[in-house]
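Lab notebook: predicted structure, single chain.

Context: the supervisor wants predicted structures on file for every construct in the current expression panel, including those that have not yet been purified. This is the next one on the list. No modifications to the sequence; it matches the entry in the shared construct table.
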Amino acid sequence: MKNRAFTLIEVTLGMAILILIFGVIFQLVQMSVLGADAAGKNSQRSREISGLFALVRQLCLDLPVRSQILLEARRGGTGYDLVFSNAPLVILPERKDGVRSLRLALEKDPIGGGGVLFLQEVFQATDNFNQPKPPETNTFELMREVVSLAWRAGDPRQQPEELREWNDPAVKPAYLKLELVRRDGGRNLTNIGFFWIPTGLSPSGQPPVDPVTRAPLTATNPAVPPS
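Prediction complete. Output recorded below exactly as produced.
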């Protein structure tokens, strides 16, 4: 009895079936990898936004009595950057011989579209006027793909109450509003946050309430220092 060999057509058909099977497997693996990559990027974006909101919230809570909040015209673009003068400690080590300022600055991305949000801390020594030293500066990149970032300040003690660019350096606003628009693939996502700046009791005479936990806030920068 003779052994029957595979014909050329059968071999070709078998190879075609194997190629189709491997092609389907490759597409499934590729979709899984792309899905995992997209999920990782979304998770990273969420962590960056949560970290930014937590940072601003803590800065507002820890603001010293002598500090000021300024909204300065953005360098090289439209809008305003948030600046804390006599800022609380963030990056540079604690020193008493100068003035510290902190800026949340949005700058245009030179590589891709959109903007890059930076945290810049500057310390200017003031104890040596004969030989002034250049300011010490540290800059950290917080996030990319920022379409727009807008700051507003408000105070319910003002009538009528309004959100605006704060231009009174002698008085702290009662709260800040941050509106952040980021690119997420082919769409834009908007995140909005309100940050209370405790300077004592609220206009109603009651302690301010944390909008997240609904618990009373303890002012770390009271308007009148304790005796």
